[in-house]
Amino acid sequence: MAFYILIDKVLETESEALYRFYDTAHPDEVGELRLDKTSETIEMTKPSREVFFNRAATKIARHFREGSLPDSTCWAS
């Protein structure tokens, strides 16, 4: 199964970042995730499919480890 998940930053502070995400095949299923910069944990704050969340969270975690949090990114597979 192919995924194309769009991920857009909603808010960023010194301690956290909030992103919206959705798979382009399911644009009505928008979820949100929150990255806690201190503990480096990511949680889903607005429910969506777990499979979409896992991919979006992985992409944001990768960006965070590399030292940048973009305004927009995507997961394509």
**Estimated helix fraction:** 10-25%
Going by helix content, strand content and strand pairing, the class is alpha+beta
Rg (CA only): 11 Å
Query: How much is the average pLDDT?
Result: 97
Number of domains: 1
User: In percent terms, what proportion of residues is strand?
Assistant: 35-45%
State the low-pLDDT regions, or none: none
Task: Order the strands across the largest sheet as they lie in space.
Answer: 4-3-2-1-5
Structure explained in plain terms:
The structure is a single chain. With 77 residues, the protein is of the alpha+beta class. The protein has one domain. The protein is built from one helix and five strands, in the order ββββαβ. It has a five-stranded antiparallel beta sheet, with helices on one face. The mean pLDDT is 97.
In terms of topology, how is this protein built?
Layout: E1 4-12, E2 16-23, E3 31-36, E4 41-46, H1 50-66, E5 72-76
Antiparallel strand pairs: 1-2, 1-5, 2-3, 3-4
Tag the structure with descriptive keywords.
77 residues; 22% helix; 44% strand; five-stranded antiparallel beta sheet; alpha+beta; 1 helix
How would you summarize this macromolecular structure in one to three sentences?
Helix content is 22%, strand content 44%. It is an alpha+beta fold and 77 residues long. The longest helix has 17 residues, at 50-66.
